[in-house]
Amino acid sequence: MGTFAAGFLIVWFAVVLYVGRLGRRQQQLRAEFEELRAAGWRVDDQDERPTHADAGRTDCQSVPQNNERPTRAKAA
Amino acid sequence: MVSRLRTYCAESCLAVLMAGAILAACLLAPTESTMGHAQRIIYVHVPVAWLGLVGFLVMAGSGLAYLSRRNLAWDHWFQAAGELGWLCCGLTLATGSLWAHEAWGTWWEWDPRLTTAFILWAVYSGVLLVRAGIDDPHRRARVGAVLAVLGALDVPLVVMATRWFRGLHPATPEMAPWMRLTLLICVAAFTVFFAWLANRRREQLELDSRWVHLRQDS
Lengths: 76, 218
Description:
The complex is a heterodimer of chains A (76) and B (218).
Chain A: H1 2-47, H2 52-55, H3 72-75
Chain B: H1 2-28, H2 42-69, H3 72-103, H4 112-132, H5 137-151, H6 154-164, H7 177-217
Helix pairs in contact in B: 1-7, 2-3, 2-5, 2-7, 3-4, 3-7, 4-5, 4-6
């Protein structure tokens, strides 16, 4: 049973490490996104108040596609 | 909300499937007469070995798709499958080594199956390392695709090594029906888990790539 347990633990340890690495990268992406969004808000505040539609965007999915060139409103 | 609920349900099903596979490996499968409980490592070793091979084929397939369409979305599949395949291939060598120590009394033998599996792991490592050193995404995808397509020639060698060459590794051992069923459950569960992880990683790479474009443009 020892060999089986060792093999099993090695596999799950590796999976946990990999998933942890994915999680860390996800958190990093979210933090960078929030930082850029806050910077965009600051730029908008100097100009005008943001629209209601812009204020509703909170998730990372609102980042534009690769081939899209983001406007200032989108980046905010 | 609906998509979040759907994701939650799918992930719960996956957790149940994995728990079922682990329980089947521990409780459902009968104990083998010669090797005893040590033989149960087959329920971990075979699924990761299978996924190591599948990962490389997915990587080579995505590479070919990239070369024909020049769409970086295929490169995200390439990277996700490559990382997980490399991990599974390494785990195959590790669990195989444990089993070899139990069955043959040695941690490693230059047996044809073991050697070809080690070469596959080395090719995986090479492809991922070369890609990591290239900044331009299209050049990285192109170089990776060519290397993966060439490296895929090792996959049939790994599969057929036990039939084409004489060695210590068994080809397809006879198994009791319950053992075969348990092995099938484990292979299916690990495959679904691998696909789920690969898809999550692909989504993350896509977001990463959009983020890079956004930063460059802003």
